[in-house]
Amino acid sequence: MQDLPKNKKIILFDGICNLCNSAVQFVIKHDKKDVFRFVALQSELGIEICNFIGIDQNKIDSIILYNPGVAYYYKSSAAIEIAEELGGIYSLVSVLKIFPEKLRNFVYDYIAKNRYEWYGKKESCMIPTPELKAKFL
Fold this sequence. Notes:
Blueprint: E1 9-13, H1 18-30, E2 36-40, H2 44-53, E3 64-67, E4 71-74, H3 75-86, H4 101-119
Parallel strand pairs: 1-2
Antiparallel strand pairs: 1-3, 3-4
């Protein structure tokens, strides 16, 4: 696997999903500590990371947060971990941890299942602007 940046957490996302792309733009805007890098699940590196951590890419309709060499999170747990890392008011999302993961993921899966119908999708993965290119692997 290609060398991943040191001390960065990697967010793997559905590169054609409008909701996912909006979430990535939100995280970029609020990532004041420059913690995150981004990889589309459909990219070669995205597939490689999924294979490395043992996630069947055919069954994934989730955001994944990968902290190389430490841990990975997916579905609602990934969203909560990302919000906590953003800090400030966004860390209040961690209150959702009081709910069982199974219940959180039920809601997450419902949104994920309907995301294309509700928010649409692109024909291909987004191409970052030159200013944002360094944030994408």
